[in-house]
Amino acid sequence: MTSLDKETAAMRPIQEIHADNLPAHSQDPGTVAVALNKLVDHSATQPDVSHSIHAPMHLIHHIPSLQSILPGIEKLAAEYHVGNYVFDRDTGKEFFESMPIYPRLGMHLLYYGGAQIKVLHDKKIEHVLQEISVRQGKVYDAPESVQSIPSFIKTYSIPLDELLYPDLKSYKCFNEFFSRKLKDGARPVKNAADPAGICSAADCRLAVYATVDLAKQFWIKGNLFTVPELLHVPPDSERAKTFEGASMACFRLAPADYHRFHSPIDATLGEIVDIPGEYYTVNPQAVNEPGFDVFTANRRAVLYMTHKPTGTPVAFVAIGAMMVGSITWTGGAQQGATVARGDELGYFSYGGSTVVALFPSGFVEFDADLVEISNKTLETLVKVGSSIGHASHPQ
Question: CA 337 → CA 269, 271, 310, 340, distances in Å?
Answer without folding.
Answer: 6, 11, 16, 10
